[in-house]
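The protein record filed here:
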Amino acid sequence: MSTPTPTHPGAETGALRAEHDALAKRLEVRRSIDVARRGAYEIFAGLIGVGASIALAWDRWGKLKPGMVRKVAKGPPVFLYLAVAAAVVLLVLAVRSFLRARRLMREEDALYARFRALRETLRLDP
């Protein structure tokens, strides 16, 4: 059973205006920007983790200046493993955040296109 369509233009305009207001409320806050910012923070922290991992690996296996003697610690490089694991986790989270931000941006762009079409239909823009 279908719902009856409004027969007079005032009811249709009211429905379009309600949809316009709902879209305006939804588009007030761009969640994609917040997710992209979080991804930027995660990639920054991940790159710091990569730098720390490289520094720890260089301290363990890097080339020494002539005349210097390396003091080798016994056992596996635990801190290096922890730094690499943290860097990988942060970079994976950053990629996930950027992919989510792209998806949200596509959805917001579609909603904004509908919003602009409604504004044109309702003649709200000069």
